[in-house]
Amino acid sequence: MPKWLMYSTVSMLIWAIWSLLSPIASRDLSGSMVQILSSAGLIPFALLLLFSKNLRKHTYLGRGLLLALATGITGGTGNIMLYSALGHNGPASLVFPIISMAPLIPVLLAPFLFKEKIRGLQAFGIAVALIAILLLNTSPSSSSRLAAFNLFSAWMLYTLLALLIFGITFITQKGATYFISDELSTVAFTVGFVLLDLVLLPTDRSLSWNIPAKAGWVSVFIGILMGVGSLTLFAAYRYGKASIVTPFSQLYPIITVLVAVPLYHETIDLLRGIGVVAALGAGVILSIE
């Protein structure tokens, strides 16, 4: 098995587990608290990476650290929005397919940031993504109509905010790998997480330290998964082409949908089912370079 495929497969499976565990933590804890507790799982993993022999491989240390730090801050903020979406009864089988369309953001910003034109395939992906969002905003109706439009529920608004922020994270994460090693990127990413936590602790009044044991330990384990998943994805990029690795890693919501529906007793009507397929397809199309 090629190394890129091995690392991509491991990363995809880790993100699938993360997506299935996140609703458990979000039921009893606020998005900010899940974020803080997940940092407790991420920090020990980052400390281990400080001893990696590849840590100091870099070209532009300052620029790379800044981008990786921004990745941690935006990634953590996106997580808070995601956990809040799940906490507002957002079905995992719908939330994560929408999140998988995060490449939509860098594609839309490319003409302004990198002076790149939107190609035909990307334009098609944008159209599919918009259709998916429209369909996923429908809700079952008992009337003769197939569905009633729901513009926009709380969980959908949080999900779209997460989509936007993760799209920005995608840009900074990709930029960081040009300048510093995967290991150092993950360490700086963790520092960004911690800085965000230091802002949340004194300012977020929704924080409650009455933490149910199950939700607390799941949140910590989520942090461990995020650390390992990020590192294996970086490794996949090192050995494989981004145009192959990215779409492959974006397939994890398929597992989420297949497992979440029976596991959490979620239901998907016809139009939303089409929307899920469209969202997954758009995520793959938009990830192709």
Description:
- This protein is mainly alpha-helical and 289 residues long.
- It has one domain (3-287).
- The protein is 75% helix and 2% strand.
- It has twelve helices and two strands.
- It has helices at residues 3-28, 31-49, 61-87, 92-99, 104-113, 120-136, 154-176, 182-203, 213-239, 242-249, 252-263, 270-287; strands spanning 138-140, 147-149.
- A two-stranded antiparallel sheet has the order 1-2.
- The longest helix is centred in the N-terminal third of the chain and has 27 residues, at 61-87.
- Mean pLDDT is 81; it is low at 141-149.
Cα end-to-end separation: 23 Å
Task: Sketch the major β-sheet.
Answer: 2 strands, antiparallel
Over the alpha carbons, how many angstroms does the gyration radius reach? 19 Å
Write down how many β-strands occur, each being a DSSP E stretch of 2 or more residues.
Answer: 2
Low-confidence stretches: 141-149
Order of helices and strands: HHHHHHEEHHHHHH
Q: Which strand order does the major sheet show?
A: 1-2
**Helicity range:** over 70%
Question: What is the general shape?
Answer: globular
- Estimated structural class: mainly alpha
Number of domains: 1
**Average residue-wise pLDDT:** 81
Individual helix count: 12
| Percentage of residues in DSSP E strands | under 5%
Structure at a glance:
This protein is mainly α. Helix content is 75%, strand content 2%.
How do the helices and strands line up, and which of them pair or pack?
Elements: H1 3-28, H2 31-49, H3 61-87, H4 92-99, H5 104-113, H6 120-136, E1 138-140, E2 147-149, H7 154-176, H8 182-203, H9 213-239, H10 242-249, H11 252-263, H12 270-287
Antiparallel strand pairs: 1-2
Helix pairs in contact: 1-3, 1-9, 1-11, 2-3, 2-8, 2-9, 3-7, 3-8, 4-11, 4-12, 6-12, 8-9, 10-12
